[in-house]
Design a protein that fits this description.
Blueprint (H helix, E strand, L loop, with lengths): L8 H6 E2 L11 E2 L1 H4 L4 E4 L10 H10 L1 E2 L8 E2 L3 E4 L5 H6 L5 H7 L16 H16 L5 E2 L1 H9 L5 H15 L4 E2 L15 H5 L8 E2 L8 E2 L3 E2 L8 E2 L9 H14 L4 H8 L3 H9 L4
Parallel strand pairs: 3-6, 7-8
Antiparallel strand pairs: 1-2, 4-5, 9-10, 11-12
Amino acid sequence: CAAIPKDLIEAELLGAEKGSYTGALKTRKGLVQQANGGTLFLDEVGELDMGLQPKLLRFLETRRARKIGGFEDFSVDLRVISATNSNLDNETERQNFRTDLYFRLSEITLRVPPLRMHNDDVPQFVRLFLDMASERFGKHFDSIEPELVQEFQDYHWPGNVRELKSHIDRMVVLHDGPILRTAWWEKPVSSSYMTSATQQNPGGSNPGMSSGSGAGEPSYGAGQFQLPGQNQQQPYWSAPPALSPKQKKALARDLLAQSDQNLGWVAAQLGIHPTTLYRWRKQGKV
C-alpha cells in the first residue's frame, strides 16, 4: 500500500471505469477483482490513506466493492492477508488507523520476531543473500569466513533482514571473491546510526537539503553532510567508491529502503551528489 500514491491506490485496488478520471482511457480491473478466487495481499496496510479505509472495511465485511466511476457493485470470493511493520495499536490510539478496520483485519495475527530474536537463522540468510548478490552483481563468492557469520549473529540488526541484506550487497559490490571476509564488514558504530540524521533533523528532510521551487527538484546547500557514526563533515562527492553506474543504482535501491529514503545519506555512501540520486529516482532507475 505504501508504494502506491494515495491518489491512485483506490483505482489500483478497486478498478476504474473508462473516463472516470484523467488518464482512465479504458475500463480496468483492480487488484481485488484480479485476486478473485485466490488471495489478496496488502503489504504495509498501516500506511493506507484514511479516506480509503472505510471502503476497505466495507469490502472486508461484504466482499462487495465498486469501481471508481462505476454504478454497480461487484462481488468477489477471496482471502485477504495484510502485513505491516507499524504498531497498529498505537496508530489507532493516535487516530491514524480506524479501530473497526484494525479489528476486522486482525482476526488471526502472526507476529514476526525481529532478526535479533532468532539469530540462529542468520547463517541461512547470509548464504541466501550472498548467492543473490553474487548473481545480481556478476561476482563469484562460494564461502564465508566463520568469524564473519559469528559477527553477524552477535549484532542486533536494528534494521532487521533488510539491513543484513544491504550490508552483504555492499561487500559483494566493493570486493571480489571467492571468500566473504570479516575485514570487509563496516560494522555500524552504534545502534542509532540509522536514525542520527532524523534526530538531528526532526522535520524529516535530508541534511544539507532545502525545499525546492519551480521545477520541483530540491535545492542543496554547501554540499556538506555528516555521515552517521562520524564526527566530521564530508562532501557528498568525496571518496567515491569504485563502482560502475549500474552497480551504484542497484546498491542505491537497497540503501534507500534501509535508510527510509534518506537521499543525503545514500548519496554520501555512494560518493555521488544528491541531485544525481534524486534524478535517478525521478527517472525510475532506483
